[in-house]
Amino acid sequence: MSAPTSISDTSFQAPSSDSIAKHNAVVLAAAMALGGSSPAIVVSLGGLVGQALASNKELATLPVSLLNLGLALGTIPAAMLMRKAGRRTGYVVGAGIGLLGGCLAAFGIASYSFVLFCLGTLIIGSYGSFNQSYRFAATDAASEAFKPRAISWVMTGGLIAGVVGPQTVIWTRDAVQAAPFAGAFLGQAALAFLSMIVVWFLRPAPVSVASTTAGGGRPLLEIVRQPRFIVAAVTGLVSYSLMTFMMTSAPLAMIGCGHSVGAAALGIQWHILAMFGPSFFTGRLISRYGKGPVTAVGLVLIAISAVIGLSGITIAHFWITLILLGLGWNFGFIGATSLVTDCYRPEERAKVQAANDFLIFGSVALASFSSGKLLSAGGWESVNWMVFPPVVVALALLAWQQKAKVIVPAKV
After folding, report:
1. What is the torsional sign of CA 237, 242, 243, 249?
2. Cα distance between residue 115 and residue 291, in whole Å
3. What residue stretches are annotated with the Major facilitator superfamily (MFS) profile domain (predicted)?
């Protein structure tokens, strides 16, 4: 019996053009615009709803942490489903999960149940595990030259999500009079339903001859032990974890400093716009300057955002911090994602992508959990100080890899 093919469910020879890749990148960008709004809604309101419903106020950010835990726990099952059923079917199922999660979160608010609300955000997080693989799905049919741009195209959908998510909060948070904020989660469910329609337009990505004849590829442990995979995973992990670490606590810190809920939501909106806005040109920057240097710039921007966060607590300080944090995440995470695509063969991509995302989002969940406790114990200043050590480690690994590329001669 032949070994299973990679994620896509076709067996024909890949064409030389990137027409299918470009079509799918546009579809996935539209899906990202809808599905990418879910984290913005949960991050904007999760801590505030948690404060209202939780008897222990230290658990206020638990709903946001569970969003990230659901994302981490869902990565491997999502990859397995898509490997068996295909990208399109998997994404439709994922959108259905997002619809369910939004409805359950709204019901939890309406029934004053912190447990049900947390369960809802956990399920919404598992929906995110499907959405996060959009960036990899865009490369399935792409040439090597188009891969960084395909990733960037998909990430531009998050630019629209950066407006849709916070505006959904602002316009629907009082839609259910008896249950403040429940309307925003019903809005999230509606957006998930729309994304279910959009992903149906995905085209099957061709599979190369190598991916259909080479079996399952190398053992996963052998792949993840490669120095280049370790560097790619660590830089992606640091970029995403630190972004979540600061973003989770920022709305609560703003409220604690006397700023309004609307100001906090707009701060998250500017942050998400900064996260995805550069995606119009990040792929071109990577093609011109290299994956490592662009990733390093992202890490440095994250560190600078913490410096701004330590310098004051006005609305301007918070917003500039969140904007720089978003820019740093964009360069760092897209750069790291591009580095990961260098670490596997076509037949290995499903398991390597799942392993990479599991490591990243498992760490993101831990960062989110610790963020709320650290904010409660030490305040916004302590959250910012914790940014610098991981950035130094990640930059050191990148520098080591770049030096190794220069020293080690190419194989003839």
Report:
1. positive
2. 42
3. 228-412
DSSP three-state, residue 44: helix
Q: What is the pLDDT along the chain (412 residues), one digit of tens a residue?
A: 333 333 333 333 444 467 888 888 899 999 999 998 898 888 778 878 888 888 877 777 788 888 888 988 888 898 889 888 888 999 999 999 999 999 999 999 999 999 999 999 999 999 998 988 888 888 887 777 788 788 888 878 877 887 888 788 888 877 787 788 899 999 999 999 999 999 999 988 765 444 444 456 788 888 888 888 999 999 999 999 999 899 888 888 998 888 887 788 788 878 878 887 787 788 888 888 888 999 999 999 999 999 999 999 999 999 999 999 999 999 999 899 889 888 888 778 778 888 888 888 888 878 877 887 788 788 899 999 999 999 999 999 999 887 766 544 434 3
Domain count, the chain: 1
Measured CA to CA, the distance from residue 145 to residue 135 in angstroms comes to 15
Residues 46 and 64: beta-carbon distance below 8 Å: yes
Give the Cα separation of 157 and 141 in Å (integer): 19
Please state the pTM of the whole predicted model: 0.72
Query: Range of 264's domain?
Result: 19-204+222-405
Name every residue whose Cβ is closer than 8 Å to that of residue 281 and which is 6 or more positions away in sequence: 152
Is residue 13 a part of any domain in this protein?
no
Helices (H) and strands (E) in the chain, counts: 17, 0
Residue 304 domain flag: yes
Task: Name the packing angle between helices 37-53 and 62-85 (round to 10°).
Answer: 140
Give a yes or no: residue 412 inside a domain.
no
Nearest Cα to Cα of residue 333 among 243, 239, 229: 239
Q: Are 75 and 132 in contact (CB under 8 A)?
A: yes
Q: Which CATH number fits the domain that encloses residue 109?
A: 1.20.1250.20
Buried b (16+ CB within 10 A) or exposed e, 263-284: bbbbbbbbbbbbbbbbbeebbe
Task: Read off the DSSP letter of residue 132.
Answer: T
Identify the residue whose tokens are 């969003």.
67
The answer to the question of residue 212 being in a domain is no
